[in-house]
Amino acid sequence: MSGTVQESFERAWREGIQSKTQQIEQESDEDSEKEQEKQNERKRAKKRRRIVRGKVPKGRKKVSEFKVRSVPTKERVTSDKYPEIMSVDSEFSNTNNQRELIIAESRFFEKDNTDQWDRGAWHVRPVDYPFVRALLQRKPHSQFDIHQFNDRDRLRASIEPVSRKYEEMYLREPIGSERPCLLGNQCEGLCITNAGDRAFILREFLLPSQQKEYEATGKLPSEQYLCVMCKRKEITRAFINIRADGMGMREDSILQDYRNIVETEGEYCLSDCNVSSRNVWEGLTDPVVLHIRSGYRLVEKDGIRYYDQWRYGYPQKTTEHLFQTPPHPSK
Known about the structure:
Strand content: 5-15%
Structural class: mainly alpha
Order of helices and strands: HHHEHEHHHEEEEEEH
Number of helices: 8
Shape: elongated
Distance between the termini: 179 Å
């Protein structure tokens, strides 16, 4: 009897422990599944937020409001309907030779096909320069003498004298309403090597009469001009080309529109100028300063950049000229 009771008690106890263990395991399994589900939900929510942040919100597509109201009509241009378009040649019908006119017109209308640097930057384009030079040059006369040249006084009357002090006013950068050199980024002021990265474009050069009118009216000439350096360079280039070709110039043509004062106190030395030959007409009635890039150096005055003509000397006065009259050549 007692053995049976004891066995029954032990069996009940084991069954109770086993049932509790199974219940605990079952509860533990349910909790782990719930926890795992929560973790998975948090991961999905985090992923959704990351995707939403990376996307650019799209607005509603705007409907085009453009409406085609009419189509432009095409019409053929003919000489019968528009005779004035084809009548340009009639303006020049009285000329004997049309070749120069055709060349000039062709090059003018083809300028848009040239490089950007060559559009409107040169007063004579490089492609036109040989043609213009051929029109101006001619073989020199064997008996020419510039001192007997009848047209020299007439040509000289249109040339304005320019002093050294006046030119130095234009060897600086433009200020206020002053315009820069016509050549822009091709200006000689940017080619002065000793200026380094401080080199600059010079202001345009006005003749004394033009400067006087500008001061009186406040209006600049309608046409833009070269600076002092570029003007010197162009005259020097044309002058050297004529001499190198062994040619002269047409006697009704001239290279200069101003002249420099030489061998006078405070002015230029004749050795620093271009001077025409006596026996060949080379387009210069009077001296013009020769352009040499190494003859300038950069200086600054009151915050304004200038170029100083440091290698262009001044005429020297001798003691003989200061205190006594020079002897006559015949003595």
